[in-house]
């Protein structure tokens, strides 16, 4: 009955209008913002830091989510059926989970980088480098690309009795549950637990401890590649560098907190629905969950602009086609929520 009610509501004009408007708005803002993040880091020399390398990886992952999960959802809402064929079903599902998982890994990577840079400044001189960050990012993408190939065997085109085509899961709920729990642990629970511990240690150093008693090591650290990403400068005094580290750490902590909060409705709902006999299928709440996922992929550039002076200046320079450090150059589910729809639960 809940599944039928979901289908009835999702087919209403009011629901379709609100759904398409919200998704297009959030995805439009997110796509433009994340493209700007990638462009300012690639085209501005002083923005090429280890932290910003991870932010570029996060931006590309978020773009993948917005394009592969958000935009097909608009087509599905308007058409009421799957229009991308079997290849689209497999490819879009693969890409949207790839983006989701890489974004989680990228957040974990810059959290660890911040911890090393602030809590182990001597080690950071050799560990936190742009070249090492690029190797880590490459490893993250390769691992996630291989891991997500599992989805090629879990989804397929389904044709209902009335001839409606859907892209859905080909396995039953009891078979999918272990896969989901592993995914939930690796890409949500463990990164958040690690972030809580590491940011707690970082806060202890930045806010509860005095500045290091080794000026030479501190000054050298501030000049090296772990320059605190968007808002540091090796030429600043140690006190200024300490303040800059606080600012950057606050910004990255906000990214992690929003990741946890915006993914919580979807993760919690699916976790509950995985164990109850009658899943909760309120169409408007499911729309809220989807919107939160897309908002998580769209909001990071807004955070950078609000909390980072260097990102703000770089964005402004990009808008004016004027680089801050040089003259202008010629420069260049179907959503993860498929299983929350009535089609998914038919085979469960």
UniProtKB/TrEMBL annotation:
The keyword Transmembrane applies. The keyword Nucleotide-binding does not apply. It comes from the Eukaryota. Residues 223-242 are annotated as: Disordered. Its main location: membrane. Residues 33-304 form the G-protein coupled receptors family 1 profile domain. Keywords: G-protein coupled receptor, Membrane, Receptor, Transducer, Transmembrane, Transmembrane helix. GO terms for biological process: phospholipase C-activating G protein-coupled receptor signaling pathway. PROSITE patterns: G_PROTEIN_RECEP_F1_1, G_PROTEIN_RECEP_F1_2. One of its GO terms (molecular function) is thyrotropin-releasing hormone receptor activity. GO terms for cellular component: membrane. The chain crosses the membrane at residues 20-42, 54-74, 136-155, 175-202, 248-264, 284-306. Belongs to the G-protein coupled receptor 1 family. Receptor for thyrotropin-releasing hormone (TRH). Upon ligand binding, this G-protein-coupled receptor triggers activation of the phosphatidylinositol (IP3)-calcium-protein kinase C (PKC) pathway. This is Thyrotropin-releasing hormone receptor. It comes from Periophthalmus magnuspinnatus. The lineage of its organism: Eukaryota, Metazoa, Chordata, Craniata, Vertebrata.
């Amino acid at each position: 009955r809940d599944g039928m009610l979901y289908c009835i509501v999702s087919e209403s004009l009011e629901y379709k209008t609100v759904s398409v408007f919200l998704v297009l708005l959030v995805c439009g803002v997110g796509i433009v913002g994340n493209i700007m993040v990638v462009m300012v880091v690639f085209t501005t020399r002083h923005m090429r830091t280890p932290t910003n390398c991870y932010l570029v990886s996060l931006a590309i992952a978020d773009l993948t989510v917005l394009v592969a999960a958000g935009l097909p959802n608009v087509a599905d809402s308007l058409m009421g059926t799957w229009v991308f064929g079997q290849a689209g079903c497999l490819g879009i599902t693969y890409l949207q989970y790839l983006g989701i998982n890489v974004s989680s890994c990228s957040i974990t990577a810059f959290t660890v980088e911040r911890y090393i840079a602030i809590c182990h400044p001597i080690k950071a001189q050799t560990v936190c480098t742009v070249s090492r960050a690029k190797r880590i990012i490459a490893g993250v993408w390769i691992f996630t690309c291989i891991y997500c190939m599992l989805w090629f065997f879990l989804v397929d085109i389904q044709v209902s009795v009335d001839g409606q085509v859907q892209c859905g899961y080909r396995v039953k709920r009891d078979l999918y549950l272990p896969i989901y729990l592993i995914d939930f642990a690796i890409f949500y629970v463990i990164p958040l637990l690690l972030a809580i511990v590491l940011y707690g240690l970082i806060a202890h150093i930045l806010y509860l401890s005095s500045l290091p008693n080794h000026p030479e090591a501190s000054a050298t650290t501030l000049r090296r590649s772990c320059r605190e990403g968007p808002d540091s400068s090796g030429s600043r005094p140690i006190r200024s560098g300490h303040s800059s580290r606080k600012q950057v750490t606050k910004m990255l902590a906000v990214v992690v907190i929003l990741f946890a909060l915006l993914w919580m409705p979807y993760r919690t709902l699916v976790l509950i629905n995985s164990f109850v006999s009658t899943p909760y299928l309120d169409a408007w709440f499911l729309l809220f969950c989807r919107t939160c996922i897309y908002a998580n992929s769209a909001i990071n550039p807004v955070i950078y602009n609000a909390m980072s002076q260097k990102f703000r200046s770089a964005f402004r320079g990009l808008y004016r086609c004027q680089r801050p450090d040089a003259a202008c150059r010629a420069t260049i589910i179907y959503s993860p929520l498929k299983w929350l729809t009535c089609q998914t639960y038919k085979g469960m």
